[in-house]
Amino acid sequence: MRSSATNSAWLRRYRARSEPRLRLVAERPGTFDGVHRRNLSKLLRIVHREGPLSRARLTEQTGLNRSTVAALAAELVELGLVEERAPDPTNRVGRPSPVIAVHPTVVAIAVNPEIDAVTIAAVGLDRRVVVRDRVEVDRLVTPEETAGLVAETIMRWRRGPLRGARVVSIGLAVPGLVRASDGLVRLAPHLGWREAPVRVLVEEATGILTIVGNDASHGATAEHLFGAGMGVEDLVYLNGGASGIGGGVIVHGLLLGGAGGYAGEFGQNRPGIAAAADRRAAGGVLEDEVSRSRLLDALHLKHADEPTLARAIEESDASAVHDEVARQRRILATALANAVNVLNPSVVILGGFLATIAERDRDGLAAAVEAQSMPAAFELVELRTAALGEDRLMIGAAEAAFADLLDDPGRAVAG
């Protein structure tokens, strides 16, 4: 990493030679009309979430007439947000209908700063992870260093895998409390960030619109829209990462934010521990007891990404590893039962290292949760693990980054 002085000078040089990344589309008659804008948004959102669809299918799903769908699709093509493909040759019924798909060059940058690494990825509007870098660190990165690393990575990718791509925006998934109104990181305790204006820092370093949110909330959104929670209206998501445990709650299909945007901090709850021998941190919170670092210690590992950690646990025959996994599962079961009793979800999804310890015996974990839950609250609950794997935070952060574009495609497109 650069020193703070070197980093600041580098940021100034980068900003001086950066080109604007966003431009406003010239206003056309009707472009910003409310109904037209909503219809344009609806069409783009459908192909973003469901993938390529024929104009005939889009006509059915939107309830609009064929000529309106054709005009909207043509406008999105002109904006460079979708492309029109030849009709599906296997569909021989009726008149062939062109297929509409999001344009593969439209991407958002997703960033997840953690205590042991900063992960940066480019995610397409079609949800493909185009390129990903995991930069391992041996000390905590500052908000300024994070901004510099993001700017440097984007500049390097523009000469390589993102040559010709259009970066719409940047989404940060931060393990901490993020104020919803302006993206200020109030507290990311494991990173040592307090009242950190990371959104402003990244925007200044890159010239690109930036959105900042809690990592687990982004994970909950991704799994709800595209993963294990698709079609589920009420779910609880818990994410286990290097910085502890966070969570997200979907209620009636919407992410529960709370008054300031801080809802879902399950990791800061005091766990109920039935056996005194299971306690490791006197007066500790859930993430002090159910901990990735404790698993790494049992495995005698310093660093590991999610697949490496899962593989190491699966392949280990050490009793210390098996005992630590079993201890964490017992405490996790109580925490999940409390969430079930309070929130009455139909699905509970576990991501990160929580998914790894759940998969050791998912039925056994579910039985332990049921034993501590109110019968009526648990009767509809299904315990699942994250379907998007290590992509979930990247996809969730990108979804937040794409939000403005999806809401109003006629306003801002990549420059």
From TrEMBL:
Signal peptide: none annotated. One of its GO terms (biological process) is regulation of DNA-templated transcription. This is ROK family protein. InterPro entries: ATPase_NBD, HTH_MarR-typ, ROK, WH-like_DNA-bd_sf, WH_DNA-bd_sf. It comes from Agromyces protaetiae. PANTHER family: BIFUNCTIONAL UDP-N-ACETYLGLUCOSAMINE 2-EPIMERASE_N-ACETYLMANNOSAMINE KINASE, ROK (REPRESSOR, ORF, KINASE) FAMILY. Coiled coil: none annotated. Pfam families: MarR_2 (PF12802), ROK (PF00480). Belongs to the ROK (NagC/XylR) family. Residues 43-90 form the HTH marR-type domain. One of its GO terms (molecular function) is DNA binding. It comes from the Bacteria. Transmembrane segments: none annotated.
